[in-house]
Amino acid sequence: MPNLIEVQNLGKSFGDNEVLKNISEEVTKGQVICVIGPSGSGKSTFLRCLNVLEDPTTGKVLFEGSNLTGISENELNNLREKMGMVFQSFNLFPNMNVIENIKLAPLRVKKMSDAAATQQAKELLEKVGLADKAEQYPQSLSGGQQQRVAIARALAMNPEVMLFDEPTSALDPEMVGEVLKVMQDLAESGMTMVVVTHEMGFAKKVADEIWFMAEGTIQEKGTPEKFFTAPKTERAQDFLSKILS
Amino acid sequence: MKKKSLFLFIIVFLLALITPLTHVNAASDNSLQQVKDKGTLVVGTSADYPPYEFTVKKNGKTKYVGLDISLAQKFAKDIGVKLKVKNMNFDSLLVALETHKVDMVIAGMNPTPERQKSVSFSNIYYTGDQYMLINKKDAAQFRKIKDFKGKTIGAQTGSLQYSLVKDQMKGNDVKGLAKLNDLVIALQSQKVNAVAMEEATAKAFASNNHTLKVINPGFDIDESQTGSAIGFSKGADSLVNAANKTIAMVKKDDLINKEYIPTAAKNMTSNSKTNSMANYWTYFVKGIEYTLIITVVSVFFGFMLGTLFAIMRLSRNRLAHALAVAYIEFVRGTPLMVQVMFVYFGIGAIIQSLPALIAGIIAVSLNSAAYVAEVIRSGIESIPAGQTEASRSLGMSQRETYRYIIIPQALKNIWPALGNEFVTLIKESSIVSIIGVTDLMYQMQLVQSATYKGVIPIFIAMVLYFIMTFGLSKVLGYFEGKMKHA
């Protein structure tokens, strides 16, 4: 399997605060990775470094072999469209209705025709179960619906990989399921995914690999079975005992 | 940032110092020839000083009249050019002369030694005594200087009377105002107990208002300081000589007493006959027109420039950011009145034909731009970072993000604040009246001068301003409501 993303000696500091320390990892095509760990361990920062929403302080992030920190703004824009991202707070554009949210980037970045973009948006809405909400504005949707629109919006660019930054953390409990279902379908369709999450059930069921992060480094990684039944590090054992009890 | 704005300030300041000097040198002494070449003699005056200079309405138009104006007409005729009168505050006259906004100043001005330092004067053409205007009911109480012990005396700032009161009535408070009309209002409302005034002017006010009376309090006067002379820029000897020739002829025929003063008196009585407000509605209409022109044009340019400065301030380019911050802080840290005067007299010294209206619009636009820039910046900064992140993660560039995501959302937040700025400008623009732009405020002062009524024109102007601002906020509110539903 070819490496889709390759992280080399990645470090990130905010002032004196060292958030990520010398991380080197790989994501291969088709892989579903769940990044878990205690709050403040640097999971979100790590994810945001992957598409350079945060500029790494040291090290490199390679996407399909190109170093994202060493290329021009234009080239970065071109590569970013291949890396869909879903945020904790949805970040839908409130000045546009649902279908406009989805069509915007295909129209403006991919220069798709309006008919093609509309057709595609409708299919994506169908896929996330919101075909009837196309004309509504984000404010009138529930959190779960908004997040599903956000997933459809990211998918509209036909990304090679999807990055999820705690996609269900801001949701009411009864809405978590509908979003996880969409994500699971996506994983089963073969999408490469990096998911920062606290949903252990989802991680167990869907992930190919668990990356356990604490104190700015990836402490251990392994298949869900191994990680959840026999964590190797003390840090992971401690974390699991707290959240499973 | 502090250093940058200081630097900007110093540059502007140096510019202001240098410019008048270069022109003083250039003027040397072909002054008469220059005026002849131009074909017009531009005369600065302060037309609220009857019978020397004041305004009358003829066929709906404002005309400047008075004995000074008659003399200026004679002078212009003698040197074979047309006369153009520029009306401004008495305080601003000498500055206007120095910055070559006007060729000469005739405003019942006394050639005091202080003034002679910066101005070349003609011979004295008329000498009047220094009087006091008082309320008629106080006539028994006030006769001579000593009767005013502990009282407040009003005088026009920058005038001879002001210095007289300062020097010879040391125990008294002096209240200085720029406009005689305002001083007379202050007298009528007991804010001051008397107003020191030149004889002819004081008599004019008293004859048009029967609650007022004139007295001669017996100021100790140096004869050379009481006469009126024409002021020219320093060193303009050929103009001074030409003026002296005219003055000699006028004196020989005693034209001032025989012809100019009687004509002025006739104009004054015709004014007092028609001094009901209804006769002056065209003044107010013109004022509203100019106030709206200044406001609308300034809102437009203020918005354009403000957007530019907001973008500069938000930009990652350090120089652009620093310039924008320096500009915004400097403009917001100085009064609009000072800015208006600086643009008119400062920049006007470089571009001498800069009309007051344009100068006013430039100053108000530049001022507004700083405030608009801050409104726009805060509007843009109020959009959550997540919006930018979502847009960028979809592969959209910074520019596309601004265009499709940030600006449309920011505009909704900015709109009400921009509307407020519009309303504010209607009011703030009244300051341009100090450089003689015929806005509502200025027209109101003209009506005051013409009708000898102080408070009613103020009240009318106030109501008119309110109608404009209230009407505008209603209109803006309507559109704002529409935008919310969109």
From TrEMBL, chain A:
Q: Keywords on this record?
A: Amino-acid transport, ATP-binding, Cell membrane, Membrane, Nucleotide-binding, Transport
- Which compartments does it reside in? Cell membrane
* Membrane protein topology class: Peripheral membrane protein
Domain of life according to the entry? Bacteria
Keyword Membrane applies: yes
> SUPFAM superfamilies per the record?
P-loop containing nucleoside triphosphate hydrolases
Domain called ABC transporter: residue spans: 5-240
Q: Name one GO molecular function term.
A: ATP binding
User: Matching PROSITE patterns, A to Z?
Assistant: ABC_TRANSPORTER_1 (PS00211), ABC_TRANSPORTER_2 (PS50893)
Q: Which GO terms describe its cellular component?
A: plasma membrane
Keyword Membrane in annotation? yes
Q: Which family does it belong to?
A: Belongs to the ABC transporter superfamily.
Name this protein carries in UniProt: ABC transporter ATP-binding protein
Which organism encodes this protein? Answer: Liquorilactobacillus capillatus DSM 19910
TrEMBL record, chain B:
**The ABC transmembrane type-1 domain covers which part of the protein?**
288-468
Q: Which GO terms describe its cellular component?
A: ATP-binding cassette (ABC) transporter complex
Decide whether keyword Transmembrane helix is in the record.
Answer: yes
Record CDD domains: TM_PBP2 (cd06261)
Q: How does it sit in the membrane?
A: Multi-pass membrane protein
Q: Which InterPro entries match?
A: AA_ABC_transptr_permease_3TM (IPR010065), ArtM/GltK/GlnP/TcyL/YhdX-like (IPR043429), MetI-like (IPR000515), MetI-like_sf (IPR035906), Solute-binding_3/MltF_N (IPR001638)
Does the keyword Cell membrane feature in the UniProt annotation? Answer: yes
Q: Do you know which SMART domains this protein is assigned to?
A: PBPb
Q: What domain of life does the native source organism fall in? A: Bacteria
Listed transmembrane segments:
290-311, 342-364, 454-479
Localization (cell) = Cell membrane
Q: Which UniProt keywords apply?
A: Amino-acid transport, Cell membrane, Membrane, Signal, Transmembrane, Transmembrane helix, Transport
PANTHER family attached here?
Answer: GLUTAMINE TRANSPORT SYSTEM PERMEASE PROTEIN GLNP, MEMBRANE COMPONENT OF AMINO ACID ABC TRANSPORTER
**Entry similarity comment:** Belongs to the binding-protein-dependent transport system permease family. HisMQ subfamily.
- Official protein name in the record: Amino acid ABC transporter
